[in-house]
Amino acid sequence: MGKVKIKKADIWIDMTPMSDVMVLLLTFFMLTSTFVKNEAVRVNAPSSVSEIKVPEENVLSILVDKSGKIFLGMETPGKMESLISDMAAQYGVSLTSKQLENGRGSANVGVPMQDLSEFLSQDAEKMNEYQAARGIPTDSIDGKMSEFQTWVDLAREANGKDMVIAVKADQATPYKVIKKMLSELQDMSENRYYLITSLKTEEE
Question: From start to end of the chain, where are the E strands?
Fold first, then answer.
């Protein structure tokens, strides 16, 4: 007796639902993710147990590296460009539209005003390298506000009383540098600010 051959049915799996889920997940992560800004210098913030979160909007960030150099930045490109433009006008520095565009894309600014034009003329990938060795001066001249104070003052004037100041300093930054910077803020009656730290782990 011959063998009975059973016809094998083709197995077909509808992948449409899986594709829909993948597209939804991709869209979700794209819309909810926040991109890390390319900061001027790498800062290793000290650890603490505080879990207070810094607001995400209307923030003036102050970055202090381990050698004591200071950099400033706003959280949105438009505000950053506006602040740079205001500082240039204050110090009589002429900037081209291309330079302002470069400033718009920069996460931080950390150069003396005399070097601002040259800094903004650098290629995007070289801007941080250029400013890393400079920093914003905190020394006042002839009793006037220092350049650091002027940056903060113009940022406050443009963004109102709701603007918050967030200070992120390296754990190796000399104490005298932090003290001087905070004294500069206190002289301007800027007595409220966030200190950014990394969350201390149980091992620490």
Answer: 47-48, 59-64, 70-74, 164-169, 194-195, 198-199
Do residues 64 and 44 lie in contact, with contact meaning Cβ atoms separated by under 8 Å? no
Q: Beta strand pairing status for 59-64 and 164-169?
A: parallel
Residue 83 makes CB contacts below 8 A (sequence gap 6+) with: 72, 74, 151, 154, 155, 158
Helix and strand numbers, DSSP H then E, in the chain:
7, 6
Taking Cα atoms as reference points, which of 183, 142, 139, 193 lies closest to residue 163? 193
| Contact residues for 102 (Cβ-Cβ < 8 A; gap 6+) | 120, 121, 122, 124, 127
Give the pTM.
Answer: 0.76
- Contacts of 148 by beta carbon, 8 Å cutoff, 6+ apart: 70, 72, 136, 137, 138, 181, 184
Residue 66 has pLDDT above 60, yes or no: yes
Residue 119: per-residue pLDDT: 93
Q: What are the phi and psi torsion angles at 175 (to 5°)?
A: -60, -40
